[in-house]
Amino acid sequence: MPIFEFRCMKCGNVCEKILVKSDEKVEMECPECKSDLLERVVSRTSHVMARGSGEQPKITSRSCGSGGSCLSLDIPGPTK
After folding, report:
1. Pick from 57, 37, 32, 36: nearest CA to 47
2. 11-22 tens-digit pLDDT
3. Alpha-carbon gap, residue 52 to 61, rounded angstroms
4. How far is residue 58 CA from its own chain's centroid?
5. Among residues 7, 16, 39, 43, which is most buried (max CB within 10 A)?
6. How many C-beta neighbours within 10 Å does residue 78 have?
7. Distances in Å between the alpha carbon of 54 and those of 4, 50, 58, 72?
């Protein structure tokens, strides 16, 4: 089941909504302040890859604003 995260633009609270079907109607309001001003946020993900005899992912580091750095991970497999 897809879980989507939303941030309330009024109070900053982050909440999750579980959507079973794409045409499902879900009440979209902040559980804290009851505002309907929500924006979708990109959920954090975590991936673990074991070293094996197969192709290894390519990791690219780049600058990413405010003096920070970001990583890109190219995972081997079929492409569209």
Report:
1. 57
2. 999 998 887 777
3. 23
4. 21
5. 7
6. 4
7. 33, 10, 13, 19
3/27 Cα distance (integer angstroms): 14
Residue with tokens 């079973």: 20
Q: Is the pLDDT of residue 51 over 80?
A: no
Amino acid at 36: D
Q: Which two tokens stand for residue 78?
A: 């079929």
Alpha carbon distances (Å) from 51 to 5, 21, 48, 56? 32, 36, 10, 7
Alpha carbon distance 42, 22 (integer Å): 18
Whose tokens are 């999750």? That residue is: 16
Task: Tell me how far the alpha carbon of residue 47 is from its chain's centroid.
Answer: 13
pTM assigned to the model? 0.50
Calpha distance 18→56 (Å, rounded): 33
- Cβ–Cβ under 8 Å, residues 60 and 71: yes
Which amino acid is located at 80 in the chain? K
